[in-house]
Amino acid sequence: MNGKTFADVVKDIRSKVKPEDSNAGIRSIRKTISGEVLFEFNKATEKESRENFNKSLRGALGHDGEVKVLMPRTTLEIRDMESDTTISDIAEVMGLDGLEDTLQGMNNNLVVAGDFNAQSVEWNMAQTDSRGRHTMEMTTRLGLMVINVAHFTKQRLIFSIFLQKWAFVARFCFLSEKGDFHFVITYSQKKYGVQNLLFYYDTEDQWPSAYRPGLTCTQRMSYLNKSQIVPLTKGTPVCEFKKGSLDSNEELMECRGDASFRTARERWWYLAVSNCNSTKGLSIEFKFSMTNGPPGDFWHHHFSADELYILPILIAFLLAYICIIIAIVICTVELKERQLYHTTYKLFVVAVVFQELGIVLQCAAYIRFALNGIGYPRTRTLGQIFESTSEVVFLLLMLLLAKGYTVTRGRLRIASSIKLTIFMCLYCVMYCVLFIYEKLFFDPGKVLYLYESPAGYGLILLRVVAWWMFVYSVVFTLKHYPEKAVFYYPFNIVGTIWFVSGPVFILITNGVIDKWVRESVVCGVLHFITLCGHVLFLVLTLPMTANKVFPYHVRTSQVGVLFDPGPDGTYPFSHHVYDPSAPRSSGVVTSNVVEADWATDVPVELFSISRIVNAEAAVIPIKSYRTNGMDYNNHRRESSSSEEEGTVNTHDQNHGNYGNHSTQ
Known about the structure:
Layout: H1 6-16, E1 26-31, E2 37-41, H2 47-61, H3 87-94, H4 99-104, H5 130-142, E3 155-162, E4 166-174, E5 179-187, H6 189-192, E6 195-201, H7 207-210, H8 217-221, E7 229-232, E8 239-243, E9 251-261, E10 267-274, E11 282-292, H9 310-337, H10 343-372, H11 377-402, H12 414-441, H13 454-480, H14 485-512, H15 518-540, E12 588-589, E13 594-595, E14 619-622, E15 625-627, E16 630-632, E17 635-638
Antiparallel strand pairs: 1-2, 3-11, 4-10, 5-9, 5-11, 6-7, 6-10, 8-9, 12-13, 14-17, 15-16
């Protein structure tokens, strides 16, 4: 403004315009990016006061400046609306009056009640959605306390408001002879008209046809017969009027009912509500209890038929992994004593431990669910995350061993490391997307389990790509180290079974296994595949004399010490065939060292070095020699004149006890 600074302009305006003269509350005065002065009003400022302030400001500036009015805008995106819904219907249902703005001007003696359609863990819901988060933020800003407590899942109390005239509510798979359903529904018939409770079952001419997108309310109901439609009105024996809560004079329709499901087989039932003549959408409060078996039946009562066997399956695998962990602990102690506890075996230990933790957490969640029908949803999700981490670690282990890491080389080539890092990052990202997709976009009306989703199929594709990398790496390693075929042939078979069986089974499951048993079958088979992979790897790496396929022949203390880095910096190991049953080397004792056949005779102690040194020699020269690709430099050892000078005690072959090495 005529070369004035921002401070000068504000000072000039304040001297000419007083906000209190027009009752306008100024919240802040800021400078915009374009250099303009922005006045922000308080929310409580009336429209007339804002207009008076703008008029005074224009009069004070005259031709020296321009006054513009900026109004906030809100963009509203509504999905899954009925095709015949109008803008007036939306405006009437939403009631965009600004609840928080209204409450700010009220006193502290305030009780707010309403149908917020909000879920939050603060009132015992399974998760917190966006509406629940916004509700909690609003109550915090206003200093309110939430006193609502809800109980849900198979017994659930949910406040719901829909813009649709037809809405999916819940699903449950009932046993053929034991399914029971109890419901309590409350709504305002005066405001929303007569609503209907709908029962669809899982045949192609029912739910799959009615749940297609683009259908109207009438078209969705046309797939039902009269016995599957329950009008929620006083004309039916299950409904009656009652007085509304909080001293309200409004009469609400309350409907209570029971139903038993007796079918030829286990069947999925899908529940929906509708009012095709509504102009305001749907608004109901409902409590559903869907059970299988009598109360107190721990293994059946709260579980849907497709979930019945998940808890026993998890408990069985929990016990199996306890046995595996005990075996791993024994093997780990033995490998540490022999200095063969390589990084790849550490990864195997991590994978098994994470798998066991995941199973433990899921068992805890399902046991709680069996007791109260609610469970621990977050604990179950955490258990799945642990199992996914186990899979990622074990996959990394398989690819590293396929490339010969810790078996034929001490490091990977830089190019191989980069490729492997990129692939593992992509695999981890896909797993994260899978969990996020489940939370945000998972449609229980369409998808029955986790892998029936785009992210699930993407994970299957990456698993197949990982298998191709695995096979290629094994072939490449065998080409350069054919003497390791005794390990890599069975390792390739084990890896192929582990990589391929999971994706193949999932693809077969989607089209072959019945939907009412699919969840349990998938849980059992996928855990069994994982268990087989861990057990077979444990067998391949058992540090026992009878194990002729044991992969490691170089100790952890030798990597990078006894071997040259090589032209590619990978520390290639010696071309060595490990044979635990080979007899101990019997070399010829000379005045210096035993000339032993180091290339083929490897003792039980896994590449331990035994030497007999002439105790009478004051200076023992060690010749330069090459042992299976390992170069040892010439050096001299000097001994003292004591009785134990220059002696290297050999160790006990059977027990692997290494003697004292006394040198000076």
